Amino acid sequence: MSDTVAENVRQFAVFGHPVAHSLSPRIHQAFARQQGMTITYRAIDVAPADLAAALAQFAASGGMGANITLPHKEAAFALCAARSDRAARCGSVNTLTRVGDRWHGDITDGAGLVRDLTERQQFDLRGRRTLLLGAGGAARGVAPALFDAGIAELVIVNRSPERADALADALGDPRRAHSRYWNDLGTLGEFDLLINATSAGRAGGTLELPFSLIGPRALAVDLNYGEIAVPFLAWAESGGCNKRSDGLGMLVEQAAESFAIWTGKRPSTEAIFDELSQQARALHTAD
Ligand code: ATR
Questions:
Q1: Do residues 223 and 119 share a domain?
Q2: Looking at the structure, do residues 221 and 271 belong to the same domain, yes or no?
Q3: pTM score, two decimals?
């Protein structure tokens, strides 16, 4: 690799398994063009057992920054020599920066979600009663940022209740964050913000959810994007929820935050977001 890349070209990559579908190379190349930089940004498919070796090889060949996606976010956290406070709170990383001969880890997912909701969608998070469905990696990656953005209450509901308990405990504010049983969803009342952070759609599954969860001006967000987000957002629409979005905005915003960490330059996200959402709409209507 190093002998084929000019020395002044910064090298980045996203590590995942699978990762061929990742939009990150396209998003980061768009940011780089906008900033007048030349970068390489590869998608590297690596099995969990090979992550450490693959990251070491990438660093040895001049890699200076890496995004980490499923299923490696927790494993990469363990491989970092230093971690941001927000990464420590989530127990996972999605952004690695090479500093000397070590990786520094950060997580930009939560900040990306908050920026998408508050700036792109103009949804004021302060005081909102929020339902978080799921307590896996995706949920843990966004919960602290939502909390810090001033939501009034975070109710965490997970199929396996002990993971919801653990996430609520980790947030360290029992008055604002608590776990509830999936079977009790019908008794929890209305929410202003409903977030699907489960991976059910990825496995082709659907969630059984009561419409009573949807408050009058609620926003429903699926952290997945594209087809995978359709069942949850269709449920929200059937329940009369007018504000709905998938995770494409969060994806673009978390990428912008990573790019800013690596380069010190915050890119504008509008053009690439519009391009990707138009493409997604075209795919959808072509079905
Ligand atoms: P990710 O990194 O995408 O969050 P994960 O850590 O494996 O992946 O977590 C998947 C989440 O989706 C979990 O909250 C999981 O619930 P369990 O902890 O009970 O496994 C949730 N999930 C997956 N399939 C689901 C389904 N069919 N119904 C409800 N929740 C589901």
A1: yes
A2: no
A3: 0.95
